[in-house]
Amino acid sequence: MAEYKKDIILISFVLLIIISLFTVSFTIGDPGKSTNGKKNAAIYINGELYEKIDLNEDKEIRIDTAKGYNIISVKNGEISVTGADCPGGTCINTGAIHENGSFIACLPHELFIRVETDDHDKEDELDAVAY
Amino acid sequence: MRSHINGKIAITGVLLSLALILSYVESLISFDSVFPGIKLGLSNLAVITALFVSGPVYGLAICILKSLLTSLLFGSMTSFIYSICGALFSFAVMFLLYIIGGFHIPVISVAGGIFHNLGQFIAAVYITKTFIPGFYLFYVAILLAAGSISGAITGFIANLCVPKIKKIISKEGES
Fold first, then answer.
1. Nearest CA in chain A to B81
2. Burial B78-117 (b: 16+ CB within 10 A, else e)
3. Which of A3, B35, B96, B126 is least buried, going by the fewest C-beta atoms within 10 A?
4. In this complex, do A107 and B128 lie within 8 Å of one another by their Cβ atoms?
């Protein structure tokens, strides 16, 4: 047992960090929790807000940037990336999302889509807890 | 002595090609629909094996060449940035634990897996310039858990491989 002393200390430390991170993130707000409020999806490009779209209206938009294109479609309250010329295709494989806080990221095009609700500003609330 | 170094270089070459094949196999198994960005990290097996069989220099060589070659073969410039960030982060931590000593291979691999994910996450935050504090905390927790699970899997496999490869090398040195 003495042989594994360092291993056990390190692994328990890692487990402690993981458990506490989960606990803290669930205490300050469950990102997977869906709300009944009006649902929006925010599209960020290069860290800046590009467009906010209502998930209750079906539509399809095409975003062209210097790095390539992404086709984003909204259907039945869900948003998904249906076409892109990025090399990995992670954004398409992520599929359709609708839960508050869930996201689609296309890292090659620096594109980030996140489902948000309008009824309360979650980011400000979290900032108040964190600092 | 000279033949010993040649043996190490040969083993490093074999491990590098193994890393490339594992990276390709990995790209076929996608977890994107479960949680975007999660990977098995099987190619880390080659890095750990090189670190323990041949030494840190060979481990670092595989680490850098693996990122460069997989990006050239299957990816792009962007994937190279993410890959090298994760690989160097992971290698730095594994090297540190290797120098300190007393840790076993699976545990070192778990640490490597976690820091690989952290390195890529930091690169992603830096490149996309997207930062949402409370939400990212949950994502980091998922990344740490995924990193330790995949690290444990590759670590236990490496733990089986390392003594056997060491035995082969020492036999070659004698003859």
1. A108
2. bbbbbbbbbbbbbbebbbebbeeeebebbbbbbbbbbbbb
3. A3
4. yes
Q: Chain B residues with CB inside 8 Å of A94's CB? A: 32-33, 36
Q: Which residues, in sequence order, are CB contacts of B60 under 8 Å at separation 6+?
A: B91, B95
**Residues of chain A neighbouring B120 (CB-CB closer than 8 A):** none
The answer to whether residue B8 scores a pLDDT higher than 60 is yes
- pLDDT beyond 50 at A33: no
The full set of domains in chain A, from first to last, is 39-119 (2.60.320.10)
- Nearest beta carbon to residue B79 from set A4, A87, A94: A87
* Lookup: tokens for B30: 């996608």
pLDDT band of residue A91 (cuts 50, 70, 90) is confident
Alpha helix segments (H runs only) across chain B: 2-28, 44-53, 56-74, 77-100, 105-128, 133-174
A34 touches chain B (CB under 8 A): no
CA torsion angle for A20, A22, A27, A32 (degrees, to 10)? 180
DSSP one-letter code for A113: E
A87 interfaces chain B, CB cutoff of 8 Å = yes
- Domain, as residue range, for B47: 2-174
CA distance, residue A19 to nearest chain B CA (Å): 8
Q: Residue A79 carries which side chain, given as an amino acid letter? A: I
ipTM, 2 dp: 0.72
Contacts of B24 (CB under 8 A, 6+ apart): B70, B73, B74
* Cβ proximity of A33 and B129 under 8 Å: no
What is the helix (H) or strand (E) element at residue A128, kind and residue range? helix A122-130
